[in-house]
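Q: What does the assembly look like in three dimensions?
Context provided by user:
Components: two
Sequences:
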Amino acid sequence: MELAAETMMELWKAAMRHILMNGRRFVDDDGKRCREIQNLVVTIKKPSSSIDGVRAMRVVRKWRYPSEEELANIMLNKEAGGIYDYLYGQRIFAYNGTLNQIDEYVVPSLQQRPETRRAIVSLLNPLRDLKMGKKNIIGMSLLQFRIIEKRLVVTAIIRTSGFFTGWPANVFQVAKLQAHVARQLQIPAGPLTTISLAAHIHDENLEDIELVLGKDVVKDAKE
Amino acid sequence: MFQEHPGPMHHIEARILEAFQRDPSRSFSTTELVREVFPKAYAELRERITSSDRKSQRKGYNTKATLHRNLLYHINKLVEQGLLEMGGVQGKGEKLFKLSMEEGELVVQDTKHRIVITKQTSMTTPIDGYEKRGIVKKYEAATWLNKHDALMLEGLSFDTPDALLQRLRHAFPIVSDAIAIEGIEHVIGKASPEECTALLKRLAHDAHDYDVALSLLFHVQAIEDDESILEPLRQVLGEMPGNLTFIFNTTPRLLTRKEGFFRELYKLFHDKRRKLTLKNSSIAPFPIFFGRAGPYSFTPEDWDYYKRRQRGTVDSCVVGQTSLAVDIEKYFGTGGTITGLRELTELSANTFFEVEEQRRKHFGERPGLPMPSLDAIKEFHRVGRNYLRFWNDWEEVDKYPILELLQSVKDRLAEFSNMQETIYKSCGLPIRFRIGLSTSFARFDQDFFSERRYRETAVSSLKQLQTTEMKHYLEIRERLCKLFDDANRLRFFITRDVPVDETARIARYLLSAYALPSVTLDFRGKSGEMKLTTFMEG
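A: Here is the predicted structure of the complete assembly.
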């Protein structure tokens, strides 16, 4: 299934409706009732609108959603912190403590061969992540940057997406990195696509979804 | 405010600024800065000054003068640069120094150092309304961003008393309340009696200097030679300051099996008029220790994680992050309702989370000890919890449904913590956020808590503990301990006339008849009428 829309909010609502209506129902490892679509592909044509999802989530008083500053920082900051189990920025800009995948590989690759399909960034580190019993395995696994029609487009492969709670933040983070790379290449940012291998929503969030995205999104799911 | 340092920063100036970084609101005396900047030299000179040898004393005073002169030279340079200023004079004309800036962020940088100092006169938090009304109190709020409430050091990680003392010198400055040394018998067991005596004295001095409560946790089962523990205690117990606590990890069976050892302990603590804590490891297999704010403990899950993943990787870990205390009596006395307690709980949880957010924002990582790897840094922070503490007359539980209320508060805190962890994890920010529930000690803030009625609390015989009233009280305390994940303390004042045999019977009864995680026997001879606050404080 593939969905596309101009803005973040349009796409988010459409994707949420789709998961709620067509998602496979099951109970997850934590005993929570879920709905899930496998391999959900969604594309935002204007990635600059991605900020709207984070802002919508920050309005809710029930929880404290990460700030735009913190979300951007963990994506763009290569400094290793002792707070987070893993840090996207560290994987991107200092993979294994050494490789800056953006400055040393993605940007020069695209500068040298604008048609290349090799400008990828790996966030998953099997040596660190794939351990039995490990609680937190990185979600965003792979990014691909391409120049298509003189714009920088990006595709992110996400292992599992909590489509209500996590996806807006993931899209915002990828859009930040896309803007960072686009600036270095001196071209505009184009569409942003996420491929969620497991796009899911917890039933316990139905009321929260109604609050953030409106009654229309959950109406049919409740019935 | 950003300040490029003129030329390379001298390492002494960097260390002075690091002391202010840890405690930005404080005025430091020159002596305190000497201690912060030259911890090893300071410890040595202090030992000399307090020794009975006049020659050694004189040498100590000479070293002190040299260190002061050296330090003042660098302090004056920082004053000239406008970073520090004089904050007054104390004692016999000793100067105090403080940061020049009133509030904000100061970044001092040269090619080698980058020191970020965040000074906030008051951090606005969601719970401030309740604090203004005198219902909630923050523990040491001025250092919330710069210090941890409590750390635990693992005795197994230190081969010598010196190694332990060196690590503690790094630990004391980043702690606002308590440090525990788990399994200290491993350090003591390897040292000579003289070294042990010197170690205990030094621990007492350092804890007193840094105003930190220090708990020494002994595993009775692991003690190979009883005298290796008893002899140093005989030497120094009488001189130990009040902020040093002795906790013996045992079981009801071990109390009987090592009866001789315990009889010696009771006699010693009775003679020296000290308090002795017995921790029941069959109820609470994890460490429990005490600060001014209250008790600290682990959840069984966290302790299991510590044993599997942390022990051997790190020599220390954070146990307490931040504490808030709620005076239940004041809350209900000022029109608080049961439903309103939910709001108070949520505001408290939000406050803890906001502090964590601020720490992440200002520091990138939380204050820690030097660690060999990034993984070790992560493990150091892994099991720490924030504490929502309650002050109350627990015997009045029939007046309000306190236990049920606390359970609902605990459930709500767990729900909030899980939700925050889930949301952050799904956003690609896997953090740990946990809030524990516990009781508060009066020393959290002497002037804050509501006054209590008086009652007789001294115990002179086992029979006294077996009355219907006492049984009811102990059963309530059992339930409270469970609610607080065993972060609780039950203290009994043992009267002066109780013989060792009876003390042994009292200890065995309390540890075997009730599911109490720890019992403190206080031999300081209090009896008769006393403030309930004092009683409960233990």
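Follow-up: The interface with chain A takes residues 350, 353-354, 357, 360-361, 364-366, 368, 374, 377-378, 380-381, 419-420, 422-431 of chain B (CB under 8 Å).
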